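REQUEST ID: PR-0412
SUBMITTED BY: lab tech R.K.
PRIORITY: routine
TASK: structure prediction, single protein chain
INPUT:
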Amino acid sequence: MKGGLGLVFAATVVTLAVGYLIKLPCAGGDWSDGRQYRRLCYSDIVPLYTARGLDKGLVPYLEADNEYPVLTGLSMAVAGAPAGSHASFFNWTVLLLTGSALATAWALYRMVGRRALFFALAPTLAAYGFMNWDLLAVALATFGTLAYLRERDGAAGILLGLGAAAKLYPGLLLIPLAAGRLREGRADRAFRLAGWAAAAWITVNLPFAILAPDRWSFFFRLSTSRPADWDSTWLLPQYKLGWSTGTVNLLAGATFLALAIVVWTVTVRRRPGLQLWTLGFPILVLFLLTSKVYSPQFSLWLLPWFALTLPDIRLFAAFQVADVAVFVTRFTWFADFEPGDLPSASFQLALAVRAVILLACVIAWIRGRVETLESAPEPAAVTA
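STATUS: complete
OUTPUT:
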């Protein structure tokens, strides 16, 4: 492993530099020529600087609505404090997200050595790393997993709770991690994990929930009321069959729960010695495939889990190619979008191929025919 961490860091920096160059034409905020789609440089970061009052110094949740969980909104405010323009806000945010990506790479290296390159060299990281603030939650979730594997369940709970306060998905990881402790006969550890996660989440959220309940709850109300997104399996059924958003919410939740139970049951029976924390990978995949929203940058959530639980280069490469195809077809379609349009055939095809590949990844994981962290050749990386 000598010199390996430097390689992982260098790869992460190079990949992020490519991502920065992709986004740079849009950083100034003048999108009147449609460049954000035609040049594939769209980023949520740029327009939200003014759309959420960060240019005026408004405090998220207290003085302005924000469509993200609290820790993400506060991170936006931190980057906005020294900024004086769209470009400077973008650059300050890039620094924050670059730190998050390097922290993720470090944590992965401590767990799986050079397999951290699955994260560091991913085209998905270049395409989506600076599109939104997801890398913050990715870093917290990865550090939470590292703390869990080091038997530091209180710290793991705090990190996952903070992750859920930035983007809700790290909260899903509590389920397999706590189940793992219960299976080990250590219920006290499971309760410690869940308790500290809840405490961390409440600590971040409670002040805003008390001081500005309407603005604080905006994210939750938006999440339940928004229709199926362009990338979702539920878009065409909702559009063609006229399903209400409430119906889609119910079907999406029920489908995810049913599939997660099936995968959990089948895998435990097939692989009785399975470490239950590794179920985080299929749970996240199934959540993305059944959710009514699969925003492009959500694919970042999966990158650490390929390194941890499914380091199959063929499946990973196939996912990366499909994910880049979704990126390209999505935004080129947006360039000519008219109200009422349905996604282009190429975009729908890319989505279908990505979904099939992700399902193939889950099947490969269930079968357990690739090396995972359980059988990695460098166990010292977990306990160092």
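NOTES: The CA atoms of residues 51 and 296 lie 21 Å apart.
REVIEWED BY: pending
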